[in-house]
Amino acid sequence: MANFTKFPIEVDNSGIIIGQSYIDSIKQQIKFIILTNPGERTYKPAYGIGIKKYLFENINRIGDKELRYDLYSKISQQFQAYLVNVAATSVDVSQVDNRLQIYINFSINNYIQDSLIVEV
User: Fold this and answer.
1) Over the range 38-65, which residues count as b (16 or more CB within 10 Å of their CB) and which as e?
2) What CA–CA distance (Å, rounded) separates 38 from 10?
3) Is the pLDDT of residue 39 over 70?
4) Largest CB tally within 10 Å, which of 19, 47, 66, 80?
5) pLDDT reported for residue 1
């Protein structure tokens, strides 16, 4: 049952806006937080992780405990501010070719467990 608007907005052949499930909506919001740079949103200057700056980190630091903790901390702070019913349970990062993969396990209302991979 799709109740939430999907971005970018899509319309089916009959002219009805295609929606998405609650969990897919949460995953999309998590992606927005991960991919948005702080200061990018006019009325929410603290919104976003700024993950693209990590693309140019020293290769040896990718997968480092300090980096994982830094990301986990930033993601948790963003969830507390903008996704109050979502909590990050673990965050891991790896480098594949010239891309970063961020693995996020999260819970919704301490009840629903799910995960998401964001690739940058």
Assistant:
1) eeeeeeeeebbbebeebeeeeeeebeee
2) 28
3) yes
4) 47
5) 45
